[in-house]
UniProtKB/TrEMBL annotation:
Keyword list, A-Z: Guanine-nucleotide releasing factor, Phosphoprotein
Similarity annotation: Belongs to the DOCK family.
Residue ranges of domain C2 DOCK-type in the record: 488-654
Keyword Transcription regulation in record: no
Biological processes annotated in GO: positive regulation of establishment of T cell polarity; positive regulation of T cell migration; small GTPase-mediated signal transduction
Pfam families: DHR-2_Lobe_A, DHR-2_Lobe_B, DHR-2_Lobe_C, DOCK-C2, DOCK_C-D_N
Higher taxonomy: Eukaryota, Metazoa, Chordata, Craniata, Vertebrata
Name listed for the protein in its UniProt record: Dedicator of cytokinesis 8
């Protein structure tokens, strides 16, 4: 074997998967299986046993033939070898190597039962109660929570039978288990969803204005862009019987096939410029085309009365011309239509983009079927919306008259280009009135009565004689690279131009008669020309249309011929030129033809078909003898114009026989010469090759094959490869010498493979495999036939199958020297004396006994026979193809070697197919597996695999290698293949590649190997232990707490059991493939490598699950045991799982404190549990689980996680229960915690989601497609079959392919499955589809959860054996409770409640004493289901809740009562769609249980339960009240506030209701109020904690919180005399802890931050920081200070921009309001809320309550007089109010925040006059100020607070004036001194102060109040104060004017001057009034010293001036 250098990677052991295991020696599988068969578990061996004999079958598959018979050459002709080979290739069956089909079970969904989910159940619609105002009492007392509703008047629900009827725990467990196992779905994977060609058809109808003669049409497609005609002509006519009779003399009979009026056109390369051109001809008549068209343009059928005579005359003339000239035609008219525009228009409205056009045409190229199947042509779906292309009728109303001098295709294409530009030809062409109607439709299925282009009927054949449809042959605009696949041999002749201009005779109406001749006699004219419409199918001659009076006519005729299969040099085309006399002259006989001359063209020249452009001379006299043997240039005859070429024509062949390529023709000719029958010298074209040069020439032709152009090489690819493989396998005898062409043929194959892969034109699949080659290998390749002389049975009768081996052994010995000389890497064999003998053996005829077996042969027991001349031929027959191919791969060198390994997939599949054919010929009974192939061949395979692995491995080659070994497992010694796998793994571990790539490649390699149909046998699954080792009694250590075991050694049994769940060396060796796969998987997960394709396991387990061989439970247990190590791997990788698809919760605590230690924290985070409680659809966020581990972890993708989890669940479902139980007993606690965490994740991951998006595409395909995708596509056989898909033939032969959503697409696809497309289009689905989808996903959710429940039960039942049951039960309970938060089916819930009841019965003492949190959660979840609309769920929940009460009665009933009450409070407070009727019914049912429980009647339980239920009922009554006010948030919060206040003595419940209020506020975006609720809750907790323990770092009760809000002091009502913290059940919730306190405060801080109250955030953290410092929690401190930093930063950034609340006074008046009558409230609304907004909201709500007519909104703010109100009406008065502060308060309230926080006093003003009017003149305008004081300070836990005090005082007119002037002055000062002045604002204020238009404002005030000194001395001070105000006002105006001077722009100077002038005018007007003082005011009260007096007055005067 070739030794390869190794390289090592530093740090490779990072894999963590114990790579040493890769070096383990696998078992000798063949030996082991034999020993098992002899001694072992024979039952299981028979069950799955050894591979079946027909594991790989070589079978012939008949080709699908579209026509009723194969297209083959005519009978009775001896075919040339090449034609014979072609025909054989096109008609022989496919040879396919297939695997035995193992039927996997179908129809698994038929047994599914519909699961009921609460989310799918619509609760009964109860009418919404309209709010009433009754019963709202004062804030004191708890009247709201009392109810007179009597539960006993309700009927209880049905009770759960036998609730207390179990004598023992074992009986209870047994009953529950039997119930759980009933109606289960055994196949988990059946529930787990994975993730065309079109042509168009045309029919036609033609209508001219007049109908006077026969008309003939032909249609063809033209591609304007490519300037090509892209289809053959289709001929039809729509003539009436009358006109057909005109032509009777010229039409001897009409064949059915010529009656077609519909045709199928195909387009391979759709393009926007494809035109359908219709050419119209008529019978030749006298006159130019214009003359003949004139009647059509002038006469109208509508004027028939007027033109009747003219029309009759025209018809008569037409009939005469038809009788005489009926066989000749003339051009008449043409029309066109853009096909693509029609298709796009006829499709549904859909925009098509350029990019779609581009991509679609590129994609389409490689997906065509074969060229000659007539199916290869497609109009691209994307390009022209063919999927939506509806049948359409097109009317073409523009029919152009033909121009006699512009008939050629070049002219036509110019016309089309003009039409595209301007919609009309540039040169003015006349049009003929009329219309052509075409019916167009897409063709999805072949219509009946359809004919192929060769006129062979297609399937389906029409039952009755109906008009046929013709398929029109396409001439694709670009090359089509699809090999020929049917026999087609057509020739198209296109006469183009004739030049008789210099001809002196009267040759003007010229036609050409064309004939295909097999000789020179007129009788040799062959009937091979295809006829046109309404005539014969085949003709012997055809005439071109005549252009009247034209000596150099152009032609557009297309003549189609069927070429004979055997052509000779005598075959030629004969052209006869005639002048046609249109008018019969008197002296002329009946004949109208005048012969002009002849020309001819040999079709077969130098053994090659003549095609292309020709210009032929014309002979003027009779043709000489043997003219056809020469080209027209040769014979000495009379030529027109001295032998000048006058006749231009083109010939095209469409042939699957004639290669039309020099290289290919030469190669085929030389190959056929080798096969015998050739005469030498051999003529190849012009060259003659003697026999001795044959080998050299053949080698040259083989080398030059890859030089041939791509299209012919592809077209004849199958034949070329077949010939080359024959040359590789069979050494040829040339001139008596053996010529070994194997090497050169192999190099040619490699070269062709390389060029096909490198071609940009050819498609490759996702593995990079060329589709053509993949197709060839799968369908076409077969071992070359033996030479013809060996097929004679008489000649080789003595050759037995053992001669194969004999010859092979001999040839291998002989070739060993060749190897060692050609490949230095391979050691040469030692020379032996046997070599000479071998030579002599090979030179003599071999004869061996039929009885001679292989062992004798290998011992060289050889008999020799006499020499014979045919020995080399025998040798060539017996040579083994696979051996030769492997040898060539090994000895290849240079570029050939490089490419052979680069495209190793091709040679691997070639080897496999040839080996399979070889094995199929063996006698498998007498030849054991290990002897099927020679040792030398095995060495070659080993070398090839080593070279590929070490030197040539890429990702794609890796996949090919894996499939190669996969196939070898079915053919060779499996132990040998395992050695190859081992070598691969060893070499891979030493490769210098990046680690992720390495793991990915190895995992992919193993994934493919493990998808083998017999993977279970290969992994020796039947030798795995399916059950736990017998243990007569529990071992001592198993009864000890696992934590105590750590100091002791585990027992042998325990070690063995735990070992089953680990990847041990023994496991890896015995179960080699499974061990490798799990080792790789473990390595990939340990590296946290995301995105690896871990779906292999998923596919594997899925195939086991659905395999009919694995139905029996004992077999399943054995299979599951094979995957037990996977369980350990998955548990260890729990941290990497992502089961959400997206993170649903924001993770704030990625790195936690000491409480985050894994051992201490339960699997579910508490905060998460609370978050989930209110939302059954919420799933755990991955990061919340991650937060427990104190590190951030890279996750696997969500779908990968799901696959891993479903694998885990499958193993758990099928593994032996006793084994699992023993495992959980022996498991260390940390591992058990991880297992429980994993189960939690499973519950979330497979939760049922309503209206799942994994929709099925069509309802009728739902079951079929799903089953196929799930059951068949993922089996090992599916893996095998995937290799052959994705290629062009599969589309045609075997239906469509399947892409399974969860498998890598670059693997080999099945050919017999259909695509299952996932779609999210809801509108596409019918109700049946949605029902089917819901059925499957509901059953999946139920089954996965039941598997989890089974495992939890197994753990619970193991608990009594272990002592650490408290933590175990706690963990199990958390998983159970989490499952109740998810959306679950009734089936699952009933079993879960049974399990919960069993837990309560068995571990009640533990549950009610220790697990306080679990108890709370349990009560909440169970109570939640007591309100379920589903009867079954309610019934189970009631039974469970009663059992909790019953079993807690003797333990801790007070706690249960408290928890149940709190749970109900939480439930009704949070849920908006809560159904209290159902809960009431449940309470009644629980009461019934208590009354019917005979055992407990003598205890206090019934009365205690009764009391509890009455209390719950009263809470429900509150809820009903709350529901009435859902639309009035203020009233709702009042109600909740009162309920919370009613629980003042019950801290737990008060806390719950405060949280409920916080949630409601949060939903309304009232973040500040929500935060306040949480601050109150925190204060409540602080009160409790301060009573319990005295820590300095804790807050001293609620007093500490008064800096946040003085309102919090109300929480201090909870004091020692009311509350005892030691009392059972009180303050037992999770929040009454330090962590709970910090959690509440942190939430409050975040809400304050959301509400922009950043200053409050600081106050909150002042309480938190000492606690964090005391705990040395520096991480928390970092986070805290970071949040504080952000808060202070926000104050700086947003300080003055923040909008705080807007406040309104709302008064309610009228008896209708009940308790609200005459009550006033201050409402807090969001910032910038206008009065109309709140007014509109309240008006809307109360109008609904009382009716529009009853409610009246009071528009002003004057006091309401009750006497003037209507008692039957309701009144609301709303007034805008502002916060009010006394002067002393303003000193402390400096910032905007301080002026908007802790507000209790508000003010509004009311203007009035003494006369009663609100407004009057300045001197009579009074103002009333009203100051309101609220009960609590804003912000509070509510958004409206009662007004408890009202103060009013009136301002006199002068006081009003003073206030107004102070306000104006203040505004001016602020605007002037802003840091960033606002010019517009300043100018607006100045305009209102000094502007000319408003001078009357301030000036008038001054004139009214300052003009005279008041007479009343009481007003002196007011007068003076106003004077001083004006002085300050005028000063501020001056400052403002100056400031404005610096702010104005250049264009505002005039405006500034005007302002200045107005200011000066105002100042002068005010001066006299401002200088007038009241002397009395300046008299000193105490007589001061003179100097003081002087000083002070002087100072005053200075100030005043």
């Amino acid at each position: 074997m070739q030794m390869l250098p190794m390289c090592s990677i530093k740090g490779l052991n990072i894999l963590g998967a114990d790579l040493l295991s890769l070096h383990l020696e696998p078992l000798d599988l063949e030996e082991f299986l034999m020993s098992q068969l002899r001694s072992g578990d024979t039952d299981l061996m028979q069950e799955l046993g050894d591979f079946p004999e027909d594991d790989l079958k070589v079978e012939q598959v008949e080709k699908e033939c579209r026509t009723v018979r194969h297209s083959v050459p005519e009978d009775g002709v001896e075919l040339e070898p090449h034609v014979r080979d072609c025909v054989k290739s096109y008609t022989q069956p496919w040879l396919v190597v297939s695997r035995s089909a193992y039927s996997e079970r179908a129809g698994l969904h038929k047994l599914l039962r519909k699961q009921t989910f609460e989310s799918d159940v619509q609760p009964e619609n109860h009418e919404k109660p309209s709010p009433t105002m009754d019963g709202l009492n004062d804030d004191s007392g708890r009247t709201l929570t009392s109810s007179d509703f009597n539960l006993r008047c309700l009927t209880p629900d049905q009770r759960v039978e036998g609730l207390l009827a179990f004598s023992s725990h074992e009986e209870l467990d047994r009953f529950n288990q039997e119930a759980r196992q009933g109606n289960r779905h055994p196949e988990l994977f059946a529930l787990y969803p994975p993730a065309d060609e079109v042509r168009y058809r045309g029919g036609s109808h033609m209508l001219f204005e007049i109908d006077i003669e026969p008309i003939f049409a032909s249609m063809a497609l033209y591609d304007l862009k490519e300037k090509k005609k892209i289809s053959e002509n289709f001929y039809c006519d729509l003539n009436s019987e009358q006109f057909k009779n005109f032509l009777k003399p010229h039409v001897p009979h009409v064949d059915q096939s010529t009656l077609a009026r519909s045709a199928i056109f195909s387009i391979t390369y759709p393009a926007p410029d494809i035109y359908l051109v219709i050419k119209i001809e008529k019978v030749l008549q006298q006159g130019e085309i214009s003359d003949c068209a004139d009647p059509y343009m002038t006469l109208r059928e509508s004027d028939s009365a007027k033109n009747k005579d003219k029309l009759e005359k025209l018809r008569g003339q037409a009939e005469a011309f038809c009788q005489r000239l009926g066989r000749y035609r003339m051009p008449f008219a043409w029309a066109t239509v853009n096909i693509m525009e029609v298709i796009s228009t006829a499709a549904l409205d859909r925009d098509v983009t350029d990019s779609e056009i581009k991509s679609s045409s590129i994609d389409r190229k490689g997906q065509l079927p074969r060229r000659n199947s007539e199916r290869y042509s497609t109009i691209d779906d994307q390009f022209c919306s063919v999927a939506a292309f509806k049948p359409a009728t097109i009317t073409i109303s523009t029919i152009f008259k033909q121009e006699g001098d512009r008939l050629s295709d070049e002219d036509l294409l110019k016309f089309l280009a003009d039409i595209k530009k301007t919609s009309a030809p540039q040169r003015r062409i006349k049009t003929i009135p009329g219309s052509i109607k075409l019916d167009m439709s897409p063709v999805h299925d072949t219509p009946p009565a359809c004919l192929s282009t060769e006129l062979i009927p297609l399937i389906p054949v029409a039952e009755k004689n109906i008009r046929p449809v013709k398929e029109v042959l396409e001439f694709p605009s670009n090359e089509v690279y699809v090999p020929h696949n049917i026999y087609r041999n057509l020739l198209y002749v296109y006469p183009q131009r004739l030049n008789f201009v210099n001809r002196l005779t009267s040759a003007r109406n010229i036609t050409i008669k064309m004939q295909f001749m097999s000789g020179e006699d007129p009788s040799c004219s062959l009937p091979v020309i295809f006829g046109k419409s309404n005539g014969s199918e085949f003709l012997q001659e055809v005439y071109t249309p005549v252009t009247y009076h034209n000596k150099s006519p152009d032609f557009y005729e297309e003549v189609k011929l069927a070429l004979p299969a055997r052509l000779t040099e005598r075959h030629h085309l004969l052209f006869t030129f005639y002048h046609i006399s249109c008018q019969q002259k008197q002296n002329q006989s009946g004949n109208c033809e005048t012969l002009i001359g002849y020309s001819w063209l040999p079709v077969w020249n130098n053994d090659r078909l003549q095609t292309g452009q020709f210009c032929l001379p014309i002979v003027l006299e009779r043709l000489p003898v043997n003219y056809s043997l020469h080209s027209p240039e040769v014979p000495p005859v009379k030529w027109m114009e001295s032998h000048k070429g006058l006749f231009n024509l083109e010939i095209q062949a469409v042939s699957s026989v004639h290669t039309q390529d020099n290289h290919l023709e030469r190669f085929f000719t030389l190959c056929h010469a080798l096969e015998g029958g050739a005469t030498f010298p051999l003529r190849v074209r012009e060259e003659k090759i003697p026999e001795n040069k044959l080998e050299h020439e053949l080698k040259l032709s083989i080398i030059s094959l890859s030089s041939s152009s791509l299209e012919p090489l592809v077209l004849f690819l199958h034949l070329v490869l077949d010939k080359l493989f024959t040359l590789i396998m069979q050494p040829m005898v040339i001139a008596g010498q053996t010529a070994n062409l194997a090497q050169i043929a192999f190099e040619s194959v490699v070269s062709i493979v390389n060029s096909l892969h490198n071609s940009q034109e050819l498609t490759r699949d996702q593995q990079g495999r060329n589709s053509l080659l993949a197709t060839y290998l799968y369908w076409v390749f077969r071992l070359p036939d033996p030479p013809r002389d060996m097929q004679n049975p008489g000649r080789n009768i003595m050759i037995s199958k053992y001669d194969f081996f004999f010859s092979t052994v001999g040839s291998m010995l002989l070739q060993s020297r060749v190897r060692s000389s050609s490949n230095p890497d391979i050691p040469g064999p030692h020379t032996s004396a046997e070599d000479a003998e071998v030579k002599s053996i090979l030179s003599a005829k071999v004869q061996s006994s039929n009885r001679l077996n292989l062992e004798l042969l290998q011992r060289n027991t050889i008999t020799r026979a006499r020499p014979c001349l045919t020995i080399v031929c025998v040798f060539s027959l017996l040579q083994q193809f696979h051996e030769e191919l492997a040898l060539q791969m090994v000895v290849s060198t240079g570029v050939c070697r490089e490419n052979a390994y680069k495209y190793a997939w091709f040679f691997f599949e070639l080897l496999v197919k040839s080996m399979a054919q070889h094995v199929s010929q063996l006698d498998k009974q007498s030849v054991p597996r290990r002897n099927r192939f020679s040792d030398r061949f095995k060495d070659d395979i080993t070398t090839i695999v080593s070279v590929v692995t070490y030197q040539k491995l890429t990702e794609k080659v890796n996949i090919s290698l894996a499939f190669f070994l996969y196939d070898l497992l079915s053919l060779m010694d499996r132990g040998f293949v395992f050695q190859l796998v081992k070598n691969y793994c060893n070499q891979m571990s030493a490769k210098c590649v990046s680690l992720p790539t390495l793991i990915s490649m190895r995992l992919e390699f193993l994934r493919i190997l493990c998808s083998h149909e017999h993977y279970l046998n290969l992994s020796l699954f039947f030798s795995s232990p399916a059950s736990a080792p017998a243990s007569p009694c529990p071992s001592i250590s198993s009864q000890v707490c696992p934590t105590c075991q750590l100091g002791f050694a585990l027992t042998a049994v325990q070690q063995r059991i735990l070992g089953l769940f680990e990847l041990s060396q023994e496991f890896k060796q015995q179960h080699y493939l499974a061990g490798l796969l799990l080792t790789e998987l473990s390595a990939a997960l340990d590296m946290e490598s995301e995105g690896l394709h871990l779906k292999c396991l998923f596919v594997l387990l899925c195939s086991h699950d659905l395999d009919h061989r694995c139905i029996k439970p004992e077999v399943r247990a054995k299979v599951a045991a094979l995957y037990l190590p996977l369980v350990g791997i998955i548990i260890d990788s729990t941290n990497y799982l992502d089961f959400t698809g997206k993170h649903t919760l924001t993770g704030k605590n990625k790195s936690g404190g000491p409480e985050d230690d894994l051992e201490n924290v339960p699997p579910i985070n508490q905060s998460v549990a609370m978050a989930i409680a209110g939302n059954p659809f919420n799933t755990l966020g991955r990061n919340v689980l991650v937060s427990m581990h104190g590190k951030s972890i890279a996750t696997l993708a969500a779908d990968t996680s799901r696959h891993l989890l479903v694998c885990f669940l499958w193993v758990m479902k099928n593994a032996d229960r006793s084994l699992i139980q023993r495992w959980t007993i022996d498991m260390p606690p940390s591992q058990l915690n991880k297992l429980l965490e994993l189960l939690t994740i499973c519950v979330s991951c497979f939760e049922y989601r309503v209206m799942s998006t994994q929709a099925l595409q069509k309802s009728q395909q739902a079951k079929l497609q799903l089953e196929e995708a799930l059951l068949r596509g993922m089996g090992a056989r599916g893996e095998m079959m995937k290799r052959v898909g994705g290629n062009v033939f599969l589309c045609t032969y075997a239906g469509k392919q399947l892409g399974i959503a969860f498998l890598r697409e670059n693997l080999r696809w099945r050919k017999d499955l259909t695509q299952w497309r996932q779609t999210n289009d809801k509108q596409d689905k019918t109700k049946a589809e949605l029902d089917q989808e819901a059925l499957i996903s509901g059953n999946l959710a139920t089954e996965t959860n039941l598997i989890v429940l089974d495992l939890l039960e197994t753990i619970i039942q193991a608990v009594p054996l272990a002592e650490c049951k408290d933590s175990v039960i706690g963990g199990v309970l958390k998983v159970l409770l989490h499952s109740l938060t998810c959306n679950q089916s009734t089936t699952f819930l009933s079993h879960t409640f049974s399990t919960l009841r069993a837990v309560v019965v068995k571990f009640g003492d533990l549950l009610f004493e220790e697990e306080a949190e679990q108890c709370a959660d349990l009560c909440q979840k169970v109570l939640q289901y007591c309100s379920s609309p589903v009867d079954e769920n309610r019934s189970q929940a009631c039974a469970t809740l009663y059992l909790i009460m019953r079993y807690s009665y003797s333990n801790n009933f007070s706690r249960v009562k408290m928890q149940v009450t709190m749970s109900l409070a939480s439930l009704v407070g949070k849920s908006s769609d809560f159904q209290e009727e159902y809960l009431r019914r449940s309470l009644r049912t629980i009461l019934a249980y208590a009354e019917e429980d005979t055992e407990m009647q003598n205890t206090q339980l019934p009365s205690q339960v009764d009391e509890l239920l009455r209390n719950l009922n009263s809470i429900l009554s509150d809820t009903v009240k709350m529901r009435e006010f859902q639309e009035d948030p203020e009233m709702l919060m009042d109600l909740m506030y009162r309920i919370a206040k009613g629980y003042q003595t019950s801290p737990d419940l008060r806390l719950t209701w405060l949280q409920n209020m916080a949630e409601k506020h949060n939903n309304r975006k009232c973040y500040t109020e929500a935060a306040m609720c949480l601050v109150h809750a925190a204060a409540l907790v602080a009160e409790y904690l301060s009573m319990l323990e005295d820590h300095k770092y804790l807050p001293v009760g609620s007093v500490t919180f008064q800096n946040i809000s003085p309102n919090v002091l109300e929480e201090s009502a909870v004091s020692d005399d009311i509350l005892s913290p030691d009392e059972d059940g009180v303050c037992s919730g999770r929040y009454f802890t330090e962590n709970g306190l910090v959690g509440l405060l942190e939430q409050a801080a975040e809400l304050f931050s959301n509400g922009c109250l950043y200053e409050a955030v600081n106050e909150v953290y002042k309480i938190i920081i000492p606690i964090s410092e005391a705990h040395r929690d520096f991480r928390k401190l970092v986070s805290t200070h970071d949040k504080l930093h952000r808060a202070f930063d926000n104050i700086i950034q947003k300080g003055h921009k923040r909008m705080f609340g807007t406040y309104f006074r709302v008064g309610f008046y009228g008896a209708k309001f009940g308790d609200l009558d005459e009550r006033e409230f201050i409402y807090k609304e969001p910032g910038i809320t206008h009065l109309p907004e709140i007014s509109h909201r309240l008006e809307n709500f109360y109008s609904q309550c009382f009716g529009d007519d009853t409610l009246i909104m009071i528009k002003d703010s004057t006091p309401v007089d009750r006497k003037q109100l209507n008692h039957s009406k309701a009144y609301i008065q709303i007034t805008y109010v502002e916060p009010y502060f006394d002067d002393y308060e303003m000193k402390d309230r400096l910032t905007n925040f301080e002026k908007n926080f802790n507000l209790r006093r508000f003010m509004y003003t009311t203007p009035f006059t003494k006369s009663g009017r609100p407004r009057g003149e300045l001197h009579e305008q009074y103002k009333r100020k009203t100051i309101l004081t609220t009960m609590h300070a804003f912000p509070y836990v509510k958004t409206r607070i009662n007004v408890i005090q009202k103060e009013e005082f009136d301002l006199t007119p002068i006081e009003v004036a003073i206030e107004d002037m102070q306000k104006k002055t203040r505004e001016l000062a602020v605007a002037t001194h802003r840091e960033q002045p606002d010019a517009k604002m300043l100018q607006m204020l100045l305009q209102g102060s000094v502007g000319a238009t408003v001078n009357q404002g301030p000036l008038e005030v001054a004139q009214v109040f300052l003009n005279e000194i008041p007479a009343d001395p009481k007003l002196f001070r007011h007068h003076n104060k106003l004077r001083l105000c004006f002085k300050e006002f005028i000063m501020r105006c001056g400052e403002a004017v100056e400031k404005n001077k610096h702010l104005i722009t250049s264009d505002q100077k005039e405006y500034q001057q005007e302002l200045k002038k107005n200011y000066n005018r105002l100042r002068e007007s005010l001066r006299p009034m401002l200088e007038r003082k009241i002397p009395e005011l300046y008299k000193p009260i105490i007589r001061p010293r003179e100097s003081f007096k002087r000083l002070s007055f002087r100072r005053t005067q200075e100030e005043n001036s």
